[in-house]
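Q: What would this complex look like in 3D?
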Amino acid sequence: MSNSHSHGPGQSHSHGPGGEAHTHDAHDAHDVSKHVRTYIFVFVALLFGTVLTVGMYYVHIPSVAWTIIIALFIATVKAFLVAGFFMHLISEKKTIYAVLAATVFFFAGMMYLIIWGRGEVPRGTRYIEGSNKELPVDVRR
Amino acid sequence: MDIPYTVKPRPDTGLFNAKVGIWLFLASEVMLFGGLFSSYIFLRVGADHAAWPHGLLNIPIGTFNTAVLITSSVTVVLAWAALKMGNFKKFRLFQSVTILCALGFLGIKSFEYKDKFTHYEVWKKDGTRLTGHIDGSPWFWETKTLQEKGIEKLKFLPDAHHYAAPKIEHAGASSGEHGAHAAIEIPVSEIKRLSAFVPSHSTYFGIYFTLTALHALHVFGGALVIAFLWGPGAKMWRTEPERFTNRIEVSGLFWHFVDLVWIFLFPVLYLL
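A: Here is my prediction, written as structure tokens for the whole assembly.
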């Protein structure tokens, strides 16, 4: 992304690395028009990612782990495209990165607590084997 | 009294205030959805594999809805770019597409919900289970509805396949949907439980409806804001164009977040 369209007179968009406050409106508009092509490209990439995700579903992968990894990997790439380009995160101000860093920290902590909690089964817990395994039988037979 | 830094960047943050505000709000939203996603993971890994339904959601419709939301996301950013270039007409055009996409998404989601509210599972006393539709496609019936209505035999159109039965994997999204057989009659005395695919049906539908309904509320809320700024709120363009552009940017950031959540919801709920 190029430098700039931050702040036309009084304007405060900060979408260029650094986002200096000296650009003027014409420069701003020119810069935005360049970004429009990027937005269209990202849009096509997102649609492609969606088709790919669904396509992978129909291609049978024997490993459950790999199925999950591939689906979440494509979703993560798509999320980066949306956050990076549509939300302009690839060139934002430090304040926003700081907010996001805190979010990532607490989000990871929450996920970790969940996994940790799963390992900490209270003493005396009993699992009833087969309690959920009633398989359906065709009712007309 | 003028609100400070609605247009000019605040010297310490380098941003106009609303932008800091929306990012703090989005951070809290990440925690809200993150908590529910972690609940999903917990429920999923703790569930018996056979008990976790597969193939009950309509994948082509889900895919189409994903495309609708992605389209709305690009039109939001293009609308903002149009304002930055001073083109108000283009802004209006792009945002009307956004609003149509939002309504389309909600309409399709409602259709999917309706499909679930009229799709049933019957647990019989002999331990067998089957899914399908009740004759007349009533909504929200449960076991006690049968007694209340004094029904002795339930006229049922079973699906060709039950989601928990072994089958050729990935046979298609419609396996649990419409491969219906001819109608059968099940004596109510043989029925242990009857439930539509509603949140109380199972943990799967519990978390499915929680996540998707919360997401749909976000779509609705975002669409309201975008529609306001498209309609009466657009007056500001004439008096304070830069401030108005900033408003569009902030509402757009929320909209992209909603899109982002769906990018994860779709594969997790429909495909995995």
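A: To summarize the key features: Chain A is about 60% helix and 0% strand. The helical segments of chain A are 25-58, 64-86, 94-119.
Q: Very helpful, thank you.
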